[in-house]
Structure formats: C-alpha cells, structure tokens
Amino acid sequence: MDFGLPIDTWDKTRKQDLANATERLKEALEQEENDLMVDGVLHRYEFTFELAWKTLKDYLEYLGITINTGSPREVIKESFAHNLISDGETWIKMMLARNSLSHLYDEETSRQVYKEIKNEYINQIEKLVKSL
After folding, report:
1. What's the mean pLDDT in 35-56?
2. DSSP states of 69-90
3. Which positions ≥6 away from 82 have C-beta within 8 Å?
4. How crowded is the C-beta side of 62, counted as CA atoms within 13 Å?
5. Is there a contact between 57 and 68 (Cβ–Cβ < 8 Å)?
6. pLDDT tens across 1-23, in order?
C-alpha cells in the first residue's frame, strides 16, 4: 500500500522491528517440527502479533485516524476499514489465537494454533510487512 507518505516521516524503527520479528518467525517455521520448536514458534508468534497490531495502531495514528479504545480488536477493525489489511476476519482469528496462547496452555489448542500460524497467519503478517 502506498499512502504517498515519505518513509522518513513514519516510525521506521517499529516497521523494522516487525520485519525482523516476522523473519525470525518464518525461520522457526522452517525447522523440523518437535515440541520445543512448536513452543518456540508459538512464543515468536505472540511477540510478532503484538508488534503487528501495535504497528497498525501507530500507522493509523500517523494517518490521523484515532481509535476509541486502542484495543487490538478496534485496531484490526479500523485497519480493515482503511484497507491496511485485506482480511479482517483472519486478523480477528489471529488475535483470538494469540489470546488463547496467553491465558492457558493446552497441547491440542497449541498444536492447532501452530498449524494456523504455519498455513495462514504468517502470510497475513508478511502481507502487512510488505504493504508498509
């Protein structure tokens, strides 16, 4: 997405942190699957998702779009409404997956989230990084 904004006028550090975290998550996903590796992917996903929604929030604010609560759900809704992300439903699922990892540890749930990260969520994050 090109909003016609000079790159030096927006927070390059946050964007670079997100790009770096995304690369580390991709590297982890390329490893042979085992319990330790899955745990590492889940941890990296939590960190990367946090950076992603906070980067979206920062960018919305830079564009002059204020958000009532600043919660991840509101940021995702506003980002979808302003075409910063193309699949709001998947981003909500990503948020819910991240929340499920933070509040309890269930082997079955964690394996399902791992598969979703590998098959779908990493693609959404990569699209965001490229569009910024």
Report:
1. 94
2. S--HHHHHHHHHHTTS-S-HHH
3. 60, 63, 65
4. 21
5. no
6. 444 444 455 667 888 999 999 99
